[in-house]
Amino acid sequence: MTSAYPPSKVLIVDDNVANIGMMADALSAEYDILVAKSAQEGLTQALHAQPDLILLDVVMPVTDGFALCRQLKSCEQTHKIPVIFVSALDTVKQQAKGFELGAVDYITKPVQIPILRARVQTHTRLYRQTVQLEALAATDPLTNLANRRKFEEAMSQEIERNQRENHALSLLIIDIDKFKDYNDRYGHGRGDDCLVAVARILSACARRGTDLVSRVGGEEFGIILSDTDADGAQSIAQAIRARLAAANIRHADSEHGYLTLSIGIATVDFAALAGGRPDSRMLVDCADNALYTAKNEGRNGVTLNHWP
Ligand SMILES: [Mg+2]
Predict the structure, then answer these.
(1) 166 & 289 share domain
(2) What gap in Å lies between CA 23 and CA 116, rounded to an integer?
(3) Which of 76, 138, 154, 257 is the most buried (most CB within 10 A)?
(4) Is 54 part of any domain?
């Protein structure tokens, strides 16, 4: 049977090589198997390989499985990965402790292969669905960009991170000029095509791993530029304008004859900031005011505001 997805990755952490071999044999036909013979090695593998499930022995020398589970659940990069304890400790108290630490299941040794397979299948499927739903909930379906909800979440995170690292943070709010007129003249289907075209241009101009391009409203987009000062933000904004001009999307109601956009930039330099830090709303307002100025000055332009 073929599947539409690559196999899930299962990490087996056990100090006993025979246990690892037995579980790996039972699962290797359907899963990519990773192994670790100690808790330390398990943590490294979990961080590095990002498995979709961890089968975790409890009794191990130095650091036991309970302690490793606690570490995994308190770490940003690993806390979502489901953990199943696999242990000869079969008392209700021990199993309850496993669940309290955030495990999704508990399998007792000696391991019964059909039970192991069934539980691994259940939890890898659930995890895949959760990851897919989270991605869906953060995406704008038309443009495939991040949606407003993801944008707001990322703004708060980036403000915190750039303040901590003493960097400058810039935010671009971008609005397509006379988009209502475009829709009225050419219809909403062509209007949607325009939004997709603009989304592609934005993504092409802000392509670092930390850049976040999002559709925040109808014809309004936001770009979060971490570790970017006013000059860096200006040059990206001008690159966006130039690319859209080069795309030459006909717009008969525009004074230019083609589709244009206006951009408001807010920049906060945390290294030079004397007062309190802005929250997400304050920076968006600051960029919105710059956008308003750009619109008033005849559109197809870029305006920058320093915060505060
Ligand atoms: Mg053991």
Answers:
(1) yes
(2) 8
(3) 154
(4) yes
pTM across the whole model: 0.78
Domain count, the chain: 2
In angstroms, how far is CA 283 from the centroid of its own chain? Answer: 21
- Ligand 1 midpoint to CA 13 (Å): 9
Q: How far apart are the CA of 228 and the centre of ligand 1, in A?
A: 49
Q: Active site residue: 30, 219, 220, 255, which one?
A: 219
Helix 65-73 vs helix 39-49: crossing angle, to nearest 10: 30
How much distance in Å is there from the Cα of 28 to the middle of ligand 1? 21
Together in a domain, 197 and 279:
yes
CA 257 → CA 43, 196, 296, 298, 301, distances in Å? 58, 20, 19, 14, 16
* Domain hosting residue 294, numbered range: 148-306
Mark whether 218 and 296 lie in a shared domain: yes
Does 100 participate in catalysis according to the annotation? no
Q: By the 8 A CB rule, do 11 and 72 touch?
A: no
Query: Is 196 among the domain residues?
Result: yes
pLDDT, one tens digit for every residue, the chain (308 residues): 456 789 999 999 999 999 999 999 999 999 999 999 999 999 999 999 999 999 999 999 999 999 999 999 999 899 999 999 999 998 999 999 999 999 999 999 999 999 999 999 999 999 999 999 999 999 999 999 999 999 999 999 999 999 999 999 999 999 999 999 999 999 999 999 999 999 999 999 999 999 999 999 999 999 999 999 999 999 999 999 999 999 999 999 999 999 999 999 999 999 988 878 899 999 999 999 999 999 999 999 999 999 98
The Å distance, Cα 127 to ligand 1 centre, comes to 26
